Amino acid sequence: MFQQLIECFNNWDEETFKELHHEDFMFIRETELLNRDEHVSNVSKLVKEPAWNWQHVATLIHENEFVTEARWEENNEVVTNFMVKKNNQIWRALVCRVEKEK
Does pTM top 0.85 for this prediction? Predict the structure, then answer.
């Protein structure tokens, strides 16, 4: 899944990105909960920003048939994205941001 996301972001296609996500997908960020369409819409806006570079900064931490875990640094935070898979699609995604220690 990680490599599919990298390829999708390198050659952005909103429909391909949407198809990587299960129809019952939910994105959890702090206290916010987004469904698949809301998440796809948000990411579609992000990839158009000049500073967008997830595919160049994210590191694969762990992946198997059930989960994908990616991590990157953004500003003064370490960001972890944990994705649970169902039917070879991303079913749930949880993002956690932790301030880097000084």
Answer: yes
**The pLDDT value given to residue 30:** 81
Query: CA-to-CA distance for 81 and 42, rounded, in angstroms?
Result: 16
Tokens of residue 99, six digits: 């301030």
- Dist. CA 46–CA 32, nearest whole Å: 17
Those residues whose C-beta lies under 8 Å from the C-beta of residue 83, and which sit 6 or more positions away, are 1, 67, 68, 69, 70, 90, 92, 93, 94
Pick the CATH number of 2-99 from 3.40.30.10, 2.30.30.40, 3.10.450.50, 3.30.43.10: 3.10.450.50
Ramachandran sector of residue 81 (left: φ over 0; alpha: ψ -120 to 50; beta: rest):
beta
